[in-house]
Structures are given as C-alpha cells and as structure tokens.
C-alpha cells in the first residue's frame, strides 16, 4: 500500500489565495493634462477670528504687508513682508507667530535696526545667525502679545545650521538674543504712545 505525500486538492469553496506582486504606473497629478479639478491638490482653508491686538500692533509698524498664496518671507529688495492668508493656517496663532518672525527680518533693513553682519545665502553662518535672530524676535513678540509660539515647518532645516553656528561661536546665542531684543524694542517704539504706556 503506497501513501502519497501530496496534499489533497481543496474543494473550490475552500480555495486559498496566493499573493503576488503587480506593477502599476503612477503619475503626479501635475503631470497629467486636462485632469478634472477634483483630482488636483485640495487647498485647506480654516475659519479663524483675527487677533485684533496683534493685527493692530503689526499694522502700526507701517510695514508693507503683501499676500502670497503659499509662502511667508521678507523680500529685502522690495522691503515687503509676504504672508499667506490667515485662512491657510490651522490656527490663528500660527499665522501671527510666523508674521512675528518675518517682521523681525523686516527690522534688519539698513534704515531700521541693521544687523552687524552681512546678508548671505542659505546654508551660511550669517544666514543661520539672521534666522536665529528672527526666531528669537518672534518668541519675544509672541510673549509680549500673549500669543503661543508654534514650531514652523522650516525649523528642521534651520536646526542643523543653528547647531553649527553655536558650536563655532559660543557668543552667538547672546548676540542673537540682543539683536532680537533690539528688533522687538524697535517694533514697540512704532506703536502709538498710549499703546506703549499700556504695555
């Protein structure tokens, strides 16, 4: 009598699945022409009540504020601060903490509170120094305006350059804090006298 070591075939209703890999061609929506709009990127929009105190404070500076749909930045050659609309931020306080950062950059113009180092490009120690001044200035302003300072998406890009700067120059944090305080004081001096006395 011989016995078979083969597994008996299963009835159809007990058939087992067999996994296999299959390749698909995937395209970025931006690479496809005439794609219906609902397949494109969806812009997030949030409903917020503006912070009247913060709006008044930044308006009193006289800075030129312009709207950019996606990015916040200070354009030096135009002497203007660009901000996405408030509705693009998950929380109103995120908008104001980013605006405080960009307004600190605005103070560095030669006609206001010029920095004691030349402007240079991304990745350089002076770029890191200016970003550190701007972030400390934002922290000081947010504290003064009773706002929460929120981490920015670009902080991850800056941390490496900040650490390198601080390793190479032990006084950099103190110099940046002093410059940030000067920038904050300058923005407060632009407020009407009664506002300054109330603060």
Task: Explain this structure.
This protein is mainly α. It has a domain at 62-198. Helix content is 42%, strand content 6%. The protein has 6 helices and 3 strands; from the N terminus they run αβββααααα. The protein has helices at residues 52-60, 92-107, 125-144, 155-168, 172-189, 193-198, and strands at residues 64-67, 73-75, 80-83. Strands 1-3-2 form a 3-stranded mixed beta sheet, covered by helices on one side. α2 packs across α3, α3 (125-144) packs across α4 (155-168) and α3 packs across α5. The radius of gyration is 27 Å and the shape is elongated. The model has no long low-confidence stretch (mean pLDDT 83).
Share of residues in helices: 40-55%
Structural class: mainly alpha
Strand proportion: 5-15%
- What is the gyration radius calculated from CA atoms? 27 Å
> Largest sheet at a glance?
3 strands, mixed
Distance between the termini: 102 Å
Instruction: Please give the number of β-strands.
Output: 3
Number of helices: 6
**General form:** elongated
Low-confidence stretches: none
The topology string of helices and strands comes to HEEEHHHHH
How confident overall, as mean pLDDT?
A: 83
| Strand order across the largest sheet | 1-3-2
